[in-house]
Amino acid sequence: MYQHYEYSKQKKRRQEYILQMRPVFNKDALFSDSTENYRIPMEPVPGDRVTIRFRTLKNNVDEVYLVVQGFRIPMHVEETKGGFDYYETDLAVGEEAVNYFFEIVAGQIQCYYYSNGVFPEQQDDYLFRIVPGFRTPKWAKGAVIYQIYVDRFFNGDPKNDVLTGEYFYIGDTSVQVDDWNKPPAVMGVREFYGGDLQGVLDKLDYLQDLGVEVLYLNPIFVSPSNHKYDSQDYDYVDPHFGVIVKDAGELLSPGDTDNKHATRYVCRVADKENLEASNQLFIRLVEEIHKRGMRIILDGVFNHCGSFNKWMDRECIYEDQEGYEKGAFVSENSPYRNFFHFHDHYHWPYNDSYEGWWGHDTLPKLNYEQSPELYQYILQIARKWVSPPFNADGWRLDVAADLGHSSEFNHRFWKDFRKAVKEANPEALILAEHYGNAESWLRGDEWDSIMNYDAFMEPVTWFLTGMEKHSDEFREDLYGNGAFFFEAMTSHMSEFLMPSQMTAMNELSNHDHSRFLTRTNHKVGRVAHLGSQAAQEDVCVPVMREAVVIQMTWPGAPTIYYGDEAGVCGFTDPDSRRTYPWGQEDRNLVRFHRDIIAIHKKYRVFVDGSILFLGHQYQGISYGRFTKTERSIIAVNNSPNVMQMEIHAWRVGISRFRDVPLQRIFLTHHNGYSLENVEVMAKGGYLDLELPPLSAVILYHADEP
């Protein structure tokens, strides 16, 4: 029966080959995208001539047209290689963006090619787009990023730890956690484990050995919380993360909730000696990172600040401090009064009627529209931290779409923000947190890219685990659904310009969602209902490894949330903000990450290559990455059984006219993973793979030099 099956497959392939030798239109061969493989240069400047390329099967179509702003421009065959014809034409670009698509004519057949594939009729969406002058930093394209939630990473300086009873915030006093391995409390915003910038410095050898190229730090500026998304002072690193050289004053007395009496805290965070010393430590950290050839991105929280902020000063911390102006809460004559919107204009002193983000009085919303001074101050902050002597390499922008009170104003601000940052540091990266379609911000004059939820984290999570990213829902219809995976990826990736897609932050976990490893246990709920222990029960490390293989071979910047590589679990925040388990790591998983990161960095095809979806079935997907000279095929079996998979390797440039050996450069499966180099033969442009349970394989082929 097996021989009959093989004979039937070979017969079918011969028939397909004979049909392809006839003038039968093969739409699966059609391809173009916005990478350097099909658009040269990929990031043109005004005045450039851009070469546009389009691929068809050899001698398979009669005409190809580039359709630009309604005009049909004939394309000509410039090269025939590997059984394909490559059509080209040149296009002069000016200052304005250019949209285009392709029209293909083959006998009586006429069809159109857009960024999401072939259509029988013209479409209004999914156009290819050139934005002259838009480029993203070369160092960020495909860069391996490591996200650090600083308080939970490593305690390098116990002398700067937040103390129990140091101040009062959101219903209780601050807490110094003695047990590094204790899971975070459900309302643990005031809990501090002691992680700091010295801890990051101390672990740079580990991060460099892992293969990390960029550090992204959650907020590090002065703030009363461990997450620090409630900024108290944008000008200074929090001394609890930095250096405390002057440590005078008293803790709060039991039962005292008045932070005017929190004199030790006031000294620590308001004394300029501590603040300047902390900034100096940051400078030293950046210098050491740059010395190693690495980069660092800071977290900018500019939609709102915190109620402790020196501009608001709801806690009256700065009210009597030398060198500080009165806060807007304290005085109607405060120079910061118009930094916020107050509903009651007759309520001073101590006016608590200000607008809070989503109604939170601990998160005053910044009132840019009514304050040119605030507008310019934040632009100055944006420039400051990417300029000497600080020299950060970019910003991640928190809830960036919420800034301001209208869409028009929001876009105006981010345009000015981009100009300010890029003038200060042309190689700085601007990444935004965003859920949903970000096209209107990704047109080349605002953000460089985004945290990639729609076109990475969510489709990967649904396919491999069936879980929603907070672990709030299990969807059996999406679990293992390869068709949905490719449909979601195709649709959402089409919303990116290529420079944005190549720098998108491709995460599996982060501080706002459950850990990916926890999602593999299919437990629906949060730590408040299930308890922290449930987050690490019945997890499936082989599925985690599959996910990381996809992450390291997908277009964009693979981003590891600290501790994911060590097997850290956790439901959605705050449980996902557990400490890094130094000395208790899953060493095999750390080693796996080190090896797959090395694969990602060794083969440029995973950074520069085009992507093509090759096939899907229940719990199985395959896709290719390819350039003019390199090609890789990735196949994933997410089922607990052996899977047979037939892959049309010819679509990524594997010859249909001879047997072609590919090298298996990486394999992960239910029992572990392997770097053993094994030859896999493609016959007639097809691959027949037998994939072990819970596996992912990377195959590679390069042209002879």
Task: Give your account of this protein's structure.
With about 700 residues, the protein is of the alpha+beta class. It has four domains: about 25-135, Immunoglobulin-like, CATH 2.60.40.10; about 140-155 and about 195-235 and about 270-305 and about 360-600, Glycosidases (TIM Barrel, Alpha-Beta Barrel); about 305-360, no CATH class; about 605-700, Immunoglobulin-like (Sandwich). The chain contains 15 helices and 33 strands. The chain has an eight-stranded parallel sheet with strand order 22-21-20-19-16-11-24-23. Strands 25, 26, 27, 29, 30, 31 and 33 form a seven-stranded antiparallel sheet that branches. Strands 3, 4, 7, 8, 9 and 10 form a six-stranded antiparallel sheet that branches. α6 (about 370-385) links the parallel β19 and β20. α13 runs parallel beside α14 (about 585-600). It is globular and about 85 Å long. The two termini are about 45 Å apart. Residues about 1-10 and about 15-25 have low confidence and may be disordered.
